[in-house]
Amino acid sequence: MKRLLSLLIILLMGIPLWSQETYSLEGTVGTATGNPEAYSLFLGGRLHLNPTLSTGIGIGLWNSGFTSTWFEEYSTNQTATLFRLSDNQTAPSFTVNLRVEQPLITVQNKPLHVFVEPGAYFLPFTGRTVNLSEEYFNGTLNPSTATMDYEQRPLNPTISNQLTTTGKPQFGWELKGGLSLEVTDNIACSFSCAYQQVDLFQTLRTAVLNTHETNEPIALQHLFPHTDRIQLQLGFVYHFRQK
User: Fold this and answer.
1) What element of type H or E holds 71?
2) pLDDT tens digits for 44-54?
3) How far apart are CA 80 and CA 229, in angstroms?
4) What is the pLDDT of residues 108-128, one digit of tens each?
5) Cα-based distances in Å from 41 to 27, 38, 84, 95, 233
6) If you ran DSSP here, which 8-state letter would residue 109 be given?
7) What is the mean pLDDT of the chain?
8) Residue 134 and residue 82: Cα distance in Å, rounded?
9) CA nearest 199: which of 170, 220, 234?
10) How far is residue 174's CA from residue 227's CA, in Å, rounded to a whole number?
11) Which of 6, 201, 213 minimizes the C-alpha distance to 88?
12) What 3-state DSSP class applies to 202?
């Protein structure tokens, strides 16, 4: 995979030496909902070498985060703790890609294109900050139901803690396919689905955060079962037509 990324980057670096037909300005927004969640916003330029082949380079932002909540009871002293673990981070990213497209059909005299687009990402900063909130409860046994009733303890009911990690720059890649429709002679919009291998939570996979009162370790790796994701993207393109 590293060889493929290197080959793609070298190819794209040499493309400006080729003759180009026109160029355009492109913006995309993407979302991958769930837990963890990830959103992206990118703006860049695209060189159209011919009606079929084009290449793009851009800069943008990744916003990602997760939440995890669980309630733990301690029968030995009839207490309980509500744990809330959360993280939200926005980081810059650079991207390069290569697009191959073909006209599919005509919609109201406007061509609808189908395209395939492999791309590479570079994230210079990958550090994250995780927040852990602990809410403490005292319990009493309810004789009628034989269950514990809990109420927030009066002294220091909530304590928060943080874990900050620093990460190394990393590369990622995606393979995108979608449809593009020319709205006017200069403006087009697109909808695509991308399979991505961009591990936004890499620095947390080996991280351990200890609870405040019981000092129990919480391994964070189980919160991120996958390094890949499926992201839906919406794009807008403005073409600078050569006269």
Assistant:
1) strand 53-74
2) 999 988 889 99
3) 35
4) 888 999 999 999 999 999 999
5) 8, 11, 28, 11, 9
6) T
7) 87
8) 6
9) 170
10) 12
11) 201
12) helix
Among the listed residues 94, 92, 114, the one whose alpha carbon sits nearest the alpha carbon of residue 103: 114
Question: May I ask the CATH class of domain 2-66+89-127+167-240?
Answer: mainly beta
- Pair 199, 170: CB distance under 8 Å: yes
Which run of H or of E encompasses 13?
helix 2-14
CB 185 within 8 A of CB 196: no
Asked if residue 187 lies in contact with residue 200, where contact means CB atoms within 8 angstroms, the answer is no
Domain ranges of the chain: 2-66+89-127+167-240
Is pLDDT above 90 for 147?
no
The amino acid at 129 = T
Q: Would you tell me how many other CB atoms lie within 10 Å of the CB of residue 198?
A: 25
CA distances from 62 to 94, 98, 178 (A): 10, 20, 21
Give the whole-angstrom CA distance, residue 202 versus residue 137: 34
**Helix, strand and coil percent figures for the chain, each rounded to 5:** 10, 65, 25
- Return the structure tokens found at 43: 């703006």
- The lowest-confidence range among 59-68, 116-125, 144-153, 231-240 is 144-153
Question: What are the residues whose beta carbons fall under 8 Å from the beta carbon of 5, sequence distance 6 or more?
Answer: 120, 171, 173
CB 87 within 8 A of CB 204: yes
Q: Provide the b/e sequence for 51-67 (b: ≥16 CB within 10 Å).
A: eeebbbbbebebebbbe
